[in-house]
Specification:
By secondary structure, this protein is α/β, with parallel strands linked by helices. The protein has 2 domains: 1-84; 85-224, Response regulator (Rossmann fold), CATH 3.40.50.2300. The chain is built from 8 helices and 4 strands; from the N terminus they run H-H-H-H-E-H-E-H-H-E-E-H. The longest helix is centred in the C-terminal third of the chain and has 21 residues, at 193-213.
């Protein structure tokens, strides 16, 4: 935990403290019988610290922390054999988790529905999702505006069946027994929608191919 993150958490407003307390209660109910309050508090607070140092919207930190903690606890439960329902899990990784990996996540969730699980992360998470990527995905009827850049964590990588990397190079985590794919794609960072569209379309093609290889039921794959 950085000193700045710790300072920010120690100086929370009353509303933020209440929001974190409510988040902890919700997570406690969701993971009842799997993880106790201490584990949930640890994941929630460490998730908060992941975003605190670079955040420009402190009022949203408790919500981001809750969402990230939920993902991490879900991943940990799968790793420890508490929550593996047989669905394939894919993790999309890039540098800033603001463009390529977010578009891949958006297509995957849209096309697969509830028949598979996908997460995303970055080696150097940005502050917000690339607006051009949001606009390009909106053209395809997929809303990724509520997503947010986040780092990857060990439990998330370990829970994945397939890890798709996009430009994070040596920073990408390597765990034995995982299926790895490296998608070579132009970085949309700093580009306008016109330049992002070809990247978006190639990501969609690759996601559809991956879903086919994972034998996701065709009924969930939508139409071109």
């Amino acid at each position: 935990m950085s000193d700045l993150a710790g300072y920010q958490r120690e100086n929370l407003s009353i509303d933020q403290q209440l929001a974190l307390h409510t988040a902890s209660s919700r997570l406690g109910e969701e993971f009842a019988g799997v993880y106790g309050p201490k584990t949930i508090e640890r994941f929630l607070h460490s998730s908060y610290d992941q975003f605190a140092a670079g955040s420009t919207v402190p009022n949203f930190l408790p919500l981001l922390a809750e969402r990230f903690a939920r993902q991490r606890l879900t991943a940990l439960a799968r790793v420890e054999g508490h929550g593996d329902d047989g669905r394939p899990v894919v993790l999309f990784l890039c540098v800033h988790n603001a463009g390529r990996s977010q578009m891949a996540l958006g297509f995957f969730e849209h096309l697969a529905g509830d028949s598979a699980i996908a997460w995303s992360g970055g080696s150097e998470p940005g502050v917000e999702v690339n607006p051009a990527a949001v606009a390009a995905m909106a053209e395809r009827g997929i809303d990724i505006s509520a997503e947010y850049p986040k780092p990857w964590t060990d439990e998330v990588v370990r829970a994945a069946d397939v890890v798709v990397t996009m430009g994070c190079g040596d920073a990408c985590p390597i765990f034995p027994g995982k299926r790895y794919e490296n998608w070579i794609l132009d970085d949309p960072d700093g580009q306008d929608v016109t330049h992002v569209r070809p990247v978006r379309d190639e990501i969609e093609r690759r996601v559809r191919q991956l879903l086919g290889e994972l034998a996701v039921p065709a009924a969930h794959l939508g139409r071109q």
